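Format notes (please read before filing issues)

Several people have asked whether sequences and structure tokens are stored in separate files. They are not. Every record keeps both together, in the order shown below: the sequence lines, then the token lines. Line labels are part of the format and must not be stripped during preprocessing.
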Amino acid sequence: MKATLPAPPRAAAPAAVATIAHPDKQWLPRTVFAVFLVFCLTPWASPPVALALGLVLAQTVGNPFPAFTKKYTARLLQYSVIGLGFGMNAYSAVQAGRQGILFTVCSIFGTLLLGYVAGRWLKLGRHLTHLISCGTAICGGSAIAAVGPVVRAKDEEMSVALATVFVLNALALFLFPAIGHAFNLSQQQFGLWCAIAIHDTSSVVGAAAAYGKEALDIATTVKLARALWIIPVALGTALAFRQKDVKVKIPWFILGFIGAMLLNTYVPATHYVGPWLVQVARLGLTVTLFFIGAGLSLNAIKSVGAKPFGLGVLLWVVISSVSLYVILHT
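Then the structure lines:
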């Protein structure tokens, strides 16, 4: 009986050669990602530049960390918004909120009504129409994330609605400051316009920050007050769609923003650390927009489809134009 001999050691050589011949293909995307991320933390970066870098990454070598950026985008934005509160005064915020309250209510319900009519005209599904309308009317991705579970929207519907508002957010971040300067809008006018006409808080704050500090304060306050409408709109959605046993996602970070603002107004000791916290918050916002841009791949943009994107553009153009006209003539 012959003994079975073990395979010669040299049989493992091809595997070693294969390992050397096929290096990690992710080294280039990871390197570009790291370089862009570090640049976003420098004084030369701004929110629009960070978004542009993210878009360049997504359309060329691709985002090597999609799960990471998706997971931490919302958290980083929320912490950044809270940090911005340490640079604001409660009295000024209340005044800004009073000026924007009527505008906010009219624009929200006007957008929802127009979205319903336009969605039926375009023959879009009821759920998708409502998601895009809520995202445009209130606060983009946050509103969609809150309303989606209420109507029990499918994953595809959520993805299309989110992609629609994210693409328009990217355009708004570049277009709005240029339009504001073209119409010679004041800081107050531009801040109010951003809060009304741009979807996501991230792009609102980014565009307003590029315009000026007063515009940033007004835009942040009015937008966060607008975001609170997620709660009544989600509850109204549950009634309209006859849904029971649903949970409404409450934007708790807004309470953190209010708390930071009150500390900055009434606690003098906060003034020593407030400017540093605001600076960190602005860096966080810049990185947030880089993450958002990195998530807008060409496939994500193509997945939207003509009709949903057409609905998003129609609502956005109408609310932007009407709100700009009202601001210029009041």
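For reference, the curators noted about this record: Confidence is low (pLDDT under 50) at residues 1-5, 11-22. Residues 67 and 246 are 27 Å apart (CA to CA).
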